[in-house]
Amino acid sequence: MPEAPDLQVILEFLEPRLTGRVVTGAREVKPLVLRNLTGKPFGDDIAGRTVEKIRRHGKLLFFDLSDDRLLLINPMLTGGLRYTDPSEKILATTHVIIDFEGDRQLRYFDQKKMGMVYYLRPEQVNDTPRVDEQGPDVLDEPMSLEDFRTALRPFRGEIKGILTRGRLVSGVGNAYADEILHAAMIFPYKKRTRLTDEEVERLHEATYDVPRSALKVLRNEIGDAIHKKVRSFLAVHRKGGQSCPRCGYTISAITANKRETNFCRKCQPGILVNN
Question: Does 130 have pLDDT greater than 70?
């Protein structure tokens, strides 16, 4: 799942290349991913419009287009973008292609068709799922510890689920939730109501430090390969069976609801029931 650090690198790559560029055409290669809410043919309506601004909030990318149009991309679990030459082979996972002046293409791909690309008028944006449910962006100026405590207080579930839902902070998904909780030394399945004051303090620090540190790494490693998801540098995510970089204990991997959680039982002690 592309998360805030991944999408921020994509934004920084695309912004100087596409801002001010004119769309010359577009097409839906496969159905189900594109949601066209304008009532007009997608390819015909988007042609001739200029990319005025590209912005991001959490795990959502927004392309502000001229003359009252917006392209909103929510990659979800397996979606991503390629910026390429039209001559490059179109992969089977490609769903939407947008042509730009200068003979360049932006392609949205999605292996499992879980993501969504919305083409709409700006006033329709809050009618799309998840947009109005997002908290402050995790890469923005951090909340104070006291504000963080206050924002966290209404939640009562497991702390990993609270992080990934996006209402506390926006932009954290499965991978960075694992990393944040490892850095904060908190058991992923611990209930918010059982967190100590010290744990909340560590959680506050890690929630902002981990994505920012990751962003620095991704800027160096991704380059122009914005379609790649770089995760090898992470401490515990997808490292089940390997050694914890903090204590050397074996990292655990537990799968629930089709989502794998990785953590160190020594650094992040807890039990799965009545924690």
Answer: yes
